[in-house]
């Protein structure tokens, strides 16, 4: 595991963005390493600059998809809920999504 500073340094060395949360930086670095390693095995490997550009495009596309994705109503349960509370959550969900359950 790398410190924030070391992680940002490694990303910067390859021309990758150093913006975002630590989780985003870790994911960006992991994806770059996977892409780099797979390109090393390729007959016609891409340059580092091409991989960086591709990774940026992937991140932009993901961000657009996440922004356009409707927020889901998930049923969330905890181990401390009673059976009646869980039944109520189920009833409310069925009522709200009634059209989806009809034939």
In short:
The chain has 103 residues and is mostly helical. It has 5 helices and no strands.
Question: How would you portray this structure in words?
Answer:
- By secondary structure, this protein is mostly helical.
- It has two domains: 4-68, no CATH class; 72-102.
- 66% of the residues lie in helices and 0% in strands.
- It is built from five helices and no strands.
- The protein has helices spanning 4-13, 22-40, 48-68, 83-96, 98-101.
- The longest helix is centred in the middle third of the chain and has 21 residues, at 48-68.
- The chain is elongated and about 55 Å long.
- The N and C termini lie far apart (52 Å).
- The mean pLDDT is 90.
List keywords for this structure.
66% helix; 0% strand; mainly alpha; 103 residues; elongated
Helix content: 55-70%
Number of domains: 2
Average pLDDT across residues? 90
Tally of alpha and pi helices: 5
Largest sheet: none
**How many angstroms separate the termini?**
52 Å
Order of helices and strands: HHHHH
* Strand residue percentage: under 5%
Radius of gyration: 22 Å
Shape: elongated
- The parts where pLDDT drops under 50 for at least 5 residues are none
Tell me how many strands there are.
0
SSE-based structural type: mainly alpha
Domain SAP: 1-33
Protein name: SAP domain-containing protein
GO biological process, one term: DNA damage tolerance
GO molecular function: single-stranded DNA binding; ubiquitin protein ligase activity
């Amino acid at each position: 595991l790398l410190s924030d500073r070391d992680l940002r340094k490694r990303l910067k060395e390859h021309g990758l963005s150093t913006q975002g949360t630590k989780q985003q930086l870790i994911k960006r670095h992991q994806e770059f390493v996977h892409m780099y390693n797979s390109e090393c095995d390729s007959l016609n490997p891409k340059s580092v600059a091409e991989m960086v550009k591709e990774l940026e495009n992937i991140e932009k596309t993901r961000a657009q998809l996440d922004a356009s994705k409707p927020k889901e109503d998930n049923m969330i349960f905890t181990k401390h809920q009673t059976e009646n509370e869980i039944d109520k959550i189920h009833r409310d969900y069925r009522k709200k999504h009634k059209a989806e359950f009809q034939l």
